[in-house]
Amino acid sequence: MLALALALPAPARAAVLPDDRADALYHRYEGGGVTVDGPSLLVRKKFGEKFSVAANYYVDMVSSASIDVVTQASPYKETRRQASLAADMLNGKTQYSLAYTNSEEDDYTANTASFDLSQDMFGDLTTVSLGFSRAWDEVRNNTDPAFKEPVDRWSYRLGVAQILTPELMMGLTFETITDEGYLNNPYRSARYRDPDDTTSYLWEPEIYPHTRTSNAVSVTADYYLWYRAALHGMYRYYTDTWGVGANTARLGYTHPIGERWILEADYRWYDQSAADFYSDLFPYEDSQNFVGRDKELSTFQSQMVTVGATWRLPPFEWGGIERSTVNIFYDHALYDYADFRDIPKGGAAGTEPLYHFGADVLRVFFSIWF
Amino acid sequence: MRYARCSLLVLLACLAGCSGVEPWVKPYERQNFADLVMIADRDPVSLAYIEHVYEAREGARGALGGHGGGCGCN
User: Fold this and answer.
1) How far away is chain A from the Cα of B10, in angstroms, using its nearest Cα?
2) Most CB atoms within 10 A, among A102, A111, A196, A264?
């Protein structure tokens, strides 16, 4: 069950209308018994000097035999389709952006509308951005046609991008998100001890709080190296009212070769603490008001390494195309869980080996500017 | 929500105090920022996808620098 309000990224740099471009991307994620692949198509077009519109169509084709599915249900396949529309308007040094996204799958509908504003100031050394999103979702259950529950979301963003030296640009972003409604997965269960059962445990439906508010702040830095290459750094601190705390750090390097190639390498670290109501194995049934066993709410760390290459094609005279690129990015991620156990590996309840898995992610896309 | 309002007030106060600042990096010194190598995640379709992967696998969300809107991942 994957649904995401995947809006087209808002501009984070200076107030300049985005280029006219079209992208066709194939994506594939494979790891932990889950395979997700599909296309993403994006077109952006300016109208005059002040207006630009964009449309994106995105598909996830999911085939899941994840550890949750293996231990609690049966493998399944599903498709999620998502469409986004965005419009930008430039007025002097101010850029306004509106976007709407709809995502549909068998058992989940997500809608998001967002407004972003960015303003250049201080001789265009500083760009300040503000943003607001409102989302309204519907959660359904394929095994119970009568089940329909709403989720409402509010997101507020504030960002500053600052040129500090001729080589260094830094950014600061703050975002707070509030959710209200049915925030569980209707299929997932929590595990509790039952000495009378042959496995010495049983399952009960998860119960989550109906509200969640999160705060995240990130700092980014992009540094231009004297031989025409660049370093990129990012750190994010995250906390929420469910007790989850997380750190994210990223370091990247971009290196051109000649006029046609750009190579990239990136390392990303992520760690988080568990939600207050998370446990791999609760002591008994109904042991507390809220119970959850979602591994995304457990204590874990992950590391991801990315390598990528962009090749700019030789110019060709066709259809007003100014330039075009072929791009390939490969990511390998490792996830290590500190309190989520691998039940299929066997062992007495609560002593099974800790779960871990690796994932491979592929992005291949073709881009044209016109 | 309270944090967002406080941050906005602090930002506006800073901006009011800095209105007389002269730009110390001149326009002719900014060519590096137009170089493609300086723009991490310069392709929106690729950026949106990898942020989707992060938010589907991790408990944290927001302030990734690209966009907001939250995650409906259960």
Assistant:
1) 11
2) A264
